[in-house]
Amino acid sequence: MLEVENLIAGYGGADVLRGIGLEVKPGEIVAVLGANGVGKTTLNRALSGLIKPRAGTIRFLGQEIAGLKASAIVAAGLIHVPEGRRIFPNMSVRDNLVLGSYRRGKPAREANLERMFELFPRLRERMGQAAGTLSGGEQQMLAIGRGLMGEPKLLILDEPSLGLSPLLVEEMFALIARIAGEGLAVLLVEQNVVQSLELAARAYVLENGRIVVEGASSQIAADPALKHAYLGL
Amino acid sequence: MSTSRAFAPALVLLLLAALIPVFVTANTVLNFIVFTLIIALAAQGWNLLGGLCGQFSFGHAAFFGSGAYAAALLQARYGVNAWAAFTAAIAFAALVGWIIGYLSFRSGLRGSYFALVTLAFAEVFRILANASAFTGGAAGTLIKLDIRPENFQFASRAAFVWIALALVGFTLLLTTAITRSRLGAWFAAVRENEDAARALGVDTLAVKLKAITLSAGITGAAGALYVQYYLYLDANIAYGSWISIEALIAPIIGGIGTPLGPIVGAVTLHGLGELTKLFASGIPGIDLVIYGALLVTAIAFAPDGMMGLLKRLGRGQVTPRTTTPKTTAAKTTTPKTEGAA
Question: Which fold has domain A2-86+138-231?
Answer without folding.
Answer: Rossmann fold (3.40.50)
